Amino acid sequence: MPNVATTKMSSKGQVVIPEIIRKQLNLKDGAQFVVVEKDDVVIFKAIKPPAMNQFDELISQARSQARQAGLKKSDISAAIAKVRGRK
Fold first, then answer.
1. Are residues 43 and 62 in the same domain?
2. Residues 28 and 57 in one domain
3. Which of helix, strand or coil describes residue 31?
4. Alpha-carbon separation of residue 58 from 30, 52, 63 (angstroms)
């Protein structure tokens, strides 16, 4: 059975995640979340960075998708220059 606890929101919109939940999920200071709202339900989904050994696969997938989309290295360079305010 999942752990259940109550909490409240501060005047600044801050919500404390109860200790029992933080320990169960091994949440540390600085943990980041995606927050989803639907009707009267709020869901916090912890965001965890990929492990270092997953980066090669992620890069391979990104390159494959870029090729399928018809992107070239020059397109990437141009997009970076545009964001940085250069032409």
1. no
2. no
3. coil
4. 24, 10, 9
- Pull the structure tokens for residue 24: 């169960």
Structure tokens at 17: 């995640």
Tell me whether residue 81 is exposed, middle or buried, using C-beta atoms within 10 angstroms of its C-beta: 0 to 12, 13 to 18, 19 or more: exposed
Residue 37 sits in a domain of what CATH number? 2.10.260.10
Render each residue's pLDDT in the chain as its tens digit; 87 residues.
677 889 999 999 999 999 999 999 999 999 999 999 999 999 999 998 888 888 888 899 999 999 999 998 898 888 899 999 865
